[in-house]
Amino acid sequence: MKRGYYGDFGGQFVPELLMPPLLELEEAMGKILKSAEFQQEYTSLLKNFVGRPTALTHCQNLSRELGFNLWLKREDLAHTGAHKINNTVGQALLTKMMGKPKMLAETGAGQHGVATATAAALLDLECDIYMGATDVKRQSHNVRRMELFGAKCIPVHSGTQTLKDAINAALRQWIANQRTTHYCFGTAAGPHPFPLLVREFQSIIGREAKQQFKERTGEMPYMVVACVGGGSNAIGMFHEFVNEKSVKIVGVEAAGTGKPGCTNSAPINLGTPGVLHGMNTLLLQTDDGQILPSHSIAAGLDYPGVGPEHVHLHDTGRAEFGMVNDSQAINAFQMLCQKEGILPALESSHALAWAIENKDIIPKDANVIVNLSGRGDKDMDILDDYLAQHGK
Amino acid sequence: MSITTLADKINDANAKGRTALIPFLPGGYPTKEVFWKEILELDANGADIIEIGMPFSDPVADGPVVEAASMKCLDAGVNLKWIIEGLAEVRPQINAGIVLMGYYNPVLQYGLEKFAKDANAAGVNGLIIADLPFEEGVDFRDLLAENEVALVPLVGLNTEPERMKLYANGGNGFCYFVSVLGTTGDRDSLPEEIKVGLKHAKEIFDIPVALGFGLKHPSQLEQLEGLVDAAVFGSALIRHIDEGKSSAEFMKVWT
After folding, report:
1. Partners of A272 in the beta sheet?
2. Which of B7, B25, B31, B211 is the most exposed place for a label (fewest CB within 10 A)?
């Protein structure tokens, strides 16, 4: 396979001015990530700061109702309330060891921004977070959290003023400040080596899940399921299982309202091949190659592209990618609250909803692990708005 | 037309003792109606090469002025087909070399082979793709060259001589040297280290070297005597047009 590619997808479609920092990062990954010093420090931070390993919960009540065994990998229990912290603590430590005093990052809903600001505060790094102006308004709570941690949150007023524009702004700033700054990319997408770097830090999810499941049952799960926006929690869950051929792998994209032709966030199901943010991948775009706005009720899935490795897993048939609409996700969200006492993020609710909606094709008593990538406290306002609009 | 047209245009200007001038305007700016008139005016007033921007929704190498101008063009319905067909019509009246500049995805969706053929037929001499570094672009460079279109290499202050050599080997058109570590948009001063980078580029490339990003006034070039064969200016021209002034007037300062 070509360097930095997953089958036909991936690559490094960036201005030449970004090639030196990408090459520098790749070299640093080779030297630093495997070092005993890094490994020791990172492992200690995951345990003592992030709170790993996160639990693997067997949902007794829902399992009875659904007819298969539902297990949740509880990333909602990680510090800051989502899997994002696995990546940002790793990248912050890498930044430190590369001798750079500053990180910058993009954020959509603000989860990655908060996780980056958290890691920056811990490791005494300066931190600038770029966030679409629309998202700044929608997620003021997360902006406040970033600022409390000492990060600067910079609203982006260009384009659609959402995540994709925040990535553009962050890439621009990285061009200008590459000598002193590391770009802490938030998902397993973007130019090589970011998909690889983010997978490296998120694959702890699948490694733990596999080991925990084996200790509890002595077996391999029948299936693992995760939601896919950019795809970092999903690749984190999937990576350890890709070579376990008996395990089915399911990624779940956000279908928006689910009406034909609606604005969605499902490029693997509904997009076409193209190049954005440094990668060749599947995109929501016009025939002219202009990028279309995306939408999902789950802000963290709201992105018109997807990490290249997922496209490859789809192409080769190793993973299946389904779709779940807003209303199905809301239903799963409420069900988990009521039956299990767990408040899931709307993103993770998409993964859960897929398992619920497809219960008839899952064999009786099969073991299904759903990655519960984050907690849903942040989604209370969105839930209330949705219920009010739909007269519930 | 040939693959050396762009280098020839710059060399001709240099032979007359002046720096070649390369104005940039996004396709369809300020409006679709007057755009081609602006291009003809730039041509008639001293442009040696004209860069036409291919607007893209996510222009990661551009600053706010070019981005806002590009969005306006997209909103007006400008696409590659409009630019290429319009150019084919007016090309016989234009003396300057023509370069299209933009991002990879719109070209990819147009179809790489179809683009190379149509661009050549419309009289395009060169192409600049801001997000296509050497590693990803080498096959497309060959395909364009077969169609007499140069893929113009972009290098900058952080491009080591070793990477410049990658681009120089088989590179054609001209070398576009980016004057700042940043995006398009004019600056009051250029960084000191620029001389070192330009010297490397002059030594390594056989083709002429053009300086772009950050230019707003000819006086910026005075200290770079002998290191710059051509100057590209975009944001300053867009701002000038936004003020309701003519392209001819803008070119006067530079010629």
Report:
1. A283
2. B31
Q: Does the distance separating the beta carbons of A288 and B106 come in below 8 Å?
A: yes
Mean pLDDT across the stretch A13-28? Answer: 98
State the Cα angle at B71 between B70 and B73, rounded to 5°: 65
User: Mean pLDDT, chain B, as a whole number?
Assistant: 94
The CA angle A209-A210-A213, to the nearest 5 degrees, is: 80
Residues A75 and A139 in one domain: no
Q: Name the percent of chain A in helix, strand, coil, to the closest 5.
A: 50, 20, 30
Task: Please tell me the distance in Å from A201's CA to the nearest CA on chain B.
Answer: 27
Same domain, A107 and A129: yes
pLDDT at B182: 80
Residue A185, domain CATH: 3.40.50.1100
Do residues A19 and A108 share a domain? yes
Q: Do A158 and B136 touch (CB under 8 A)?
A: no
Mean pLDDT for chain A?
Answer: 96
pLDDT of residue B183: 79
pTM of the model: 0.96
Span A187-243, pLDDT tens digits: 999 999 999 999 999 999 999 999 999 999 999 999 999 999 999 999 999 999 999
User: Looking at the partner chain, which of A20, A168, A275 has a beta carbon nearest the beta carbon of B105?
Assistant: A275
Burial bucket for residue A390 (CB in 10 Å: 0-12, 13-18, 19+): exposed
**Cβ–Cβ of B134/A16 closer than 8 Å?**
yes
pLDDT digits over B30-81, tens only? 999 999 999 999 999 999 999 999 999 999 999 889 999 999 999 999 999 9
A265, A344: one domain: yes
Residue owning tokens 């706005």 = A293
Residue A175 touches partner B, C-beta closer than 8 Å? yes
* Domains within chain B, CATH numbers bracketed: 5-254 (3.20.20.70)
**Same-domain pairing of A176 and A145:** yes
Would the pLDDT of A363 be above 70?
yes
pLDDT tens-place string over residues A142-174: 999 999 999 999 999 988 888 999 999 999 999
Q: Dump strand ranges (E) for chain B.
A: 20-26, 49-53, 97-102, 126-129, 150-151, 154-156, 175-178, 209-212, 230-233
Parallel/antiparallel/unpaired status of strands A278-283 and A272-276 = antiparallel
Looking at residue A8, what is its pLDDT? 97
Is the ipTM, as predicted for this complex, more than 0.90? yes
- Tell how far CA A28 is from the center of its chain: 23
Query: Out of B68, B105, B183, whose CB is closest to A289?
Result: B105
> Which region holds residue A5: left if phi is over 0, alpha if psi is between -120 and 50, else beta?
beta
Contacts of A281 in chain B (CB under 8 A): none
Q: At what angle do helices B247-254 and B32-44 cross, to 10 degrees?
A: 30
Given this model, what pLDDT does residue A159 score?
85
* Chain B CB within 8 Å of residue A375 CB: no
Tokens of A285: 């775009």
Does A153 qualify as catalytic in the annotation? no
Q: How many domains does chain A have?
A: 2
Cα A220 to Cα A12, A213, A231, A372, B5, distances in angstroms: 36, 7, 23, 19, 65
